[in-house]
Specification:
Structural class: alpha+beta
Radius of gyration: 13 Å
Shape: globular
Low-confidence stretches: none
Largest sheet: 5 strands, mixed
Strand content: 25-35%
Length: about 100
């Protein structure tokens, strides 16, 4: 999948492992797991590839949004867009890291 980020801090966390904005600072282990989840999404060629990983706890949410588990407390929320007629490009739009239990 091609990854796009809705918010700049999400891209910074993946590429640099930290974020300039203090509002979006996470513990190092959460950032490491977030980076691994993005790698997992990049490796997937279609949405169904994520179903086989039980540890992701894949969930379909409202309005074509989906989420996977980062760790016990945090989830990665994303949206899938498909473009093209003959050749299909799947774009994963990373929207947020949310605290699952708040």
């Amino acid at each position: 999948m091609i990854i796009e980020y809705e918010k700049e801090y999400l891209k910074e966390l993946y590429e640099k492992g930290k974020c300039k904005n203090k509002k979006y600072r996470f513990q190092p282990q959460v950032v490491n797991k977030y980076q691994k989840r993005i790698d997992t999404l990049m490796a997937a060629t279609r949405l169904e590839d994520l179903f086989v990983f039980n540890s992701l706890n894949f969930e379909a949410l409202e309005n074509n949004y989906y989420s996977i588990r980062i760790d016990y407390h945090y989830r990665l929320k994303f949206k899938i867009k498909t473009k093209g007629t003959e050749e299909i490009f799947t774009i994963c739009l990373i929207t947020d890291i949310t605290n699952h239990y708040q």
